[in-house]
Design goal:
The chain is α/β, with parallel strands linked by helices. It has 9 helices and 12 strands. The strands form 2 sheets. Strands 3, 4, 5, 6, 7, 8, 9, 10, 11 and 12 form a 10-stranded mixed sheet that branches. A two-stranded antiparallel sheet has the order 1-2.
Length: 290
């Protein structure tokens, strides 16, 4: 399988060697269970049926899931098993099927969904660093895009995620997501059925990125966009190599980010308590449900 699924466009045969994502052509997942720590309209009361895929097209120095994103931990499964996992999560009562870091397994996921398409929404949970060509393959398949916009400036995205073109790529990807799901639709219990949520993780000493991203969203996307402004940053992984982010966010920093949200006139959004910055909220990657 010559792979160009993500913006890295490795153009290598992943049956012979791993791509930039660190994965070969075998599906590797680390956990498939009900997850209660997404936005309230995603997790609800029954949980989001979350599948954590191993590997990642980004190399974020502070990644809280580094055991699977760069460490490669997980278990190999078949396309058929993946489709069965979708069914099992649905039977457990999940509000949706939540595909976490699915990009580099896009083709296999599409195959699995042909075998079994759950009768609950499909959530594409990603870093934002997505190929529009790949996203177009999910038109009429993905119901909800849960996407990051991490950085605006290329020097920052290069330093923290080894992706100089991050915003250039992500800004186009987010527009494609909104083209596919232009309306945010909820059921009577407030659970999202269709739509797009844009996440932004506020980083210490990086409020300039927050301002630039919020300003871009205001000037370039629809007025009903939903923003999840996150304070849960923890200096994990290789964050210790960057002293400016080698600490948690301060109350004042997050308050400034919230002030920006109000300044730009956003009305739809999710905020977090600073207490969310705990390792307790990182799911155990123990092969449960695999």
């Amino acid at each position: 399988m010559v792979c160009n699924m993500c913006p890295r466009k490795c153009n290598i045969d992943r049956s012979e060697k791993a791509g930039f994502c660190g994965m070969n052509d075998k599906i590797i997942i680390a956990r498939a269970e009900l997850h209660f720590w997404e936005e309230p309209c995603i997790s609800g009361t029954k949980g989001s049926g979350t599948v954590f895929f191993s590997g990642c097209p980004l190399k974020c120095v502070y990644c809280q899931n580094s055991d699977i994103s760069s460490g490669g931990f997980g278990k190999e499964i078949t396309v058929e098993r993946l489709s069965s996992i979708f069914r099992e999560l649905e039977e457990k009562g999940a509000h949706n099927i939540n595909l976490v870091t699915p990009t580099h397994y896009s083709e296999q996921i599409l195959e699995a969904l042909k075998i079994y398409r759950p009768n609950i929404p499909i959530v594409y949970n990603c870093s934002g660093y997505e190929s529009t060509e790949t996203l177009k393959k999910f038109k009429n398949i993905v119901d909800i895009y849960l996407t990051d916009i991490k950085y605006f400036d290329s020097d920052v995205s290069e330093k923290y995620s080894k992706a100089k073109d991050y915003f250039e790529v992500t800004s186009e990807a987010v527009k494609e997501m909104i083209r596919q799901q232009p309306e945010n639709i909820f059921d009577d219990n407030g659970i999202m059925i269709k739509g797009v949520i844009i996440r932004h993780l506020v980083l210490p000493l990086n409020l300039t990125q927050t301002r630039k991203i919020l300003e871009w969203i205001k000037n370039n996307l629809s007025d009903n966009v939903i923003i999840s402004l996150m304070s849960q940053y923890i200096p994990l992984g290789k964050a210790c190599e960057h002293k400016e982010i080698n600490r948690r966010l301060t109350t004042r920093e997050y308050e400034k980010a919230l002030d920006m949200f109000d300044e730009f006139g956003f009305e739809n959004g999710f905020m977090q308590e600073l207490s969310s910055s705990k390792e307790d909220f990182i799911p155990p990657f123990n092969l449960e449900g695999v």
